[in-house]
Amino acid sequence: MSGNRQQDASSIWRAPLLFAVLAALFVLEGTVRNSMFSGSWNSSLAILNMGLISAVMALGVNMQWGYGGLFNAGVVGFIAIGGLAPVLISTQPVPGAWEAGTPRLILALLAAAGTLALASIAWKRLTRPWNALALVAVLILGFVLYRNIFDPAVAAIEANNSAAAGNIGGLGLPVLLSWPVGAIFAAAAAWCVGKVALGLRSDYLAIATLGIGEIIVAVARNEEWLARGVKNVTGIPRPVPYEINLQQDPDFVARAAEWGLSAANASGIWVKLCYAGLFALVLLALIGLSQLALKSPWGRMMRAIRDNETAAAAMGKDVTRRHLQIFIIGSAVIGLAGAMMITLDGLMAPAGYAPLRYTFLIWVMVIVGGSGNNWGAVLGAILIWFLWIKAEAWGPALMGLVTAFLPAGGLRSHLIESAPHMRFLAMGVVLLLVLRFAPRGLVPER
Amino acid sequence: MDILNALVTLLNFVVIPAAAYGAQLALGALGVTLIYGILRFSNFAHGDTMAFGTAICILLVWALQAAGIGIAPLPTALLALPAAIALTALLMVATDRAVYRFYRRQRSAPIIMVMASVGVMFMMNGLTRLLIGVNEIRFDDGARFVVSVAEFRAWTGLSEGLALRQSQVITLVVTALACWALFWFLNRTRSGKAMRAYSDNEDLALLSGIDPDRVVRITWIIAAALVTTAGVLYGLDKSFRAFNYFQILLPIFAAAIVGGLGNPLGAVAGGFIVAFSEVAVTYPWRKIAGYLLPDWQPAGLLQLLSTEYKFAVSFVILIVVLLFRPTGLFRGKSF
Q1: Model-level pTM?
Q2: CATH 3.30.70 fits B2-324, yes or no
Q3: DSSP-derived 3-state class of residue B137
Q4: Chain segment A290-303, per-residue pLDDT in tens
Q5: In chain B, where the domains are located
Q6: Does B177 touch chain A (CB under 8 A)?
Q7: How many Å apart are CA B62 and CA B77, to the nearest integer?
Q8: Cis, bond preceding B251 (omega within 30 deg of 0)
Q9: Which residue from A207, A367, A431 is facing B257, i.e. has the nearest CB?
């Protein structure tokens, strides 16, 4: 960000070197078995896959922060709303749900949207004393109408086979289609927040996004008709083969034996490699597109706005509009990553959406990697994700070593037990150190 | 009789809980608004600092309980509170030295300070987890009720009961004392006036010889006192869970913005506005309606929003204020 530039021009070898170090870490995790690494390619690739998804999330945050200077404190919400897409698009339709009340439900949602639109028109079109009155009247009537249509529909849908389903189900379309849909969901949510909170003080957006994030996660947890809430949706279809089918395929087992791997091990590795390929493809396409965009006049305009809003406004650029644009694009990328994550897990479990993990950890990734640089964000994401996962194992070991001099007792066991929490402290320290001493991150913006 | 019953129900389920919750939010929002007024950024670490201060207080309570010291029937936490405030203040002043001072001297953009506060939030969160873990802890020893439902029914003969918990009374009394002390400090003392001057116009305040480091230090100490008190009261009233303290960040921010960021009086009002709307919107009104309109039999619970969405209320209030009056009801930045 402006104002805190590192003076030295960094070497062009810096990024490739750092990526090589990162690759070496993953190879070590895959091959060496000791107290630090697990020596399992399955574990290494599992970390890599989530690392790649984190990289897509970090790209989205980097667009908002690195290119727009916008602080999105509700990343978790955009991830969650993107994650709803695989459930709604690719799971099989729930028998009986449509008859039970899905059309009525859609009508209720349309009524709610119509109420808001009508309220907005009433507020803008009518004159001073009447507009507030009309606004309140429309909102109250609309709410009563909405609840009267909505409640029976929800009750009927949730009563329909509630042990196994109780939701509206999906469309049964290919799961890859749900990725762009997830992006669209997130973009729509971003439009709503951005429209209100942008153009005001810069931290209002942060607070408003914090709110929308909490609300989206609350909706995912509590609205059982939508995606079964905390009862979770399992068995979301995959774009890649299933391990069990591979293990029953004699060709595959034979080829695994050639490599000296057991069928179970090889099938796990192959499935994860397929995912890694898919995710890497999406990631590279996104980086390619955003690099092209940044080199275009549009990208120069965005950076000009970020570096000096007043000057850009004086040049006739509509700062708020551009901010809204970049905020929506960045959120769409985050939503895409959310859909990818649910596809990888094959499971929608909204209880897991914790803000520290899905909002602020992504922020640490972007800041550490290098805000304003796409490759930096990717590097930071994969590196921090690797450390975050491994720190869970390293923390207790390290704490055991540090407290070796203490007598075995309450304090020592308390410290070792709570050592997995050390990673929160460590992430805070890393973020503060990078922000202070290398504000442009590991791979600075050119 | 029915009207009295309705009134008692309203008091019991809406007015008293909302007043206690509002007082806790008001103390939290006062801290946010003071930091905003003096240091000019929204402190995202506020919720986790609150959790940290409460964790310290709980540890002290345990130590006091082990030593057999208490002030029954009041909770031991009140005795431990001053020491907890002192320790939290020490940590906050140290954090300012290590983190925020650099950006202040650089005159960095406020959003960079917000980012730094996210780093502090992570650290506070980690510290709290290290100190006390993530489990739910109750530390409200002492008497539980000032007025219990059974006693109230016996006294009045009404069919509805009224419970007044001790933690609620303590919350209201302590909040009133804290607000009185804060406003007395800001309006009557030299340091308080220096703070207001610094908040109103930094350059002019520097020109008249106000020491900025001192003002900032006092701000952090006051914020530490407010935040620890708010956290301990909230913990006494509900229970202590570190994650809940992160979650009340949103209502606290909403309260501070509704009142106008930087305006302490506004923060207090904002706290109560947010709390009363939250409770009123998530309370099922069926029972009260049953007393007032015995002939009307509504189908539902007459609950506008289920309690899981209470954060949506803060959010909607926030959005409404941002749309129609971005500087808040009381015009921010005026103390």
Answers
A1: 0.90
A2: no
A3: strand
A4: 999 988 999 999 98
A5: 2-324
A6: no
A7: 9
A8: no
A9: A207
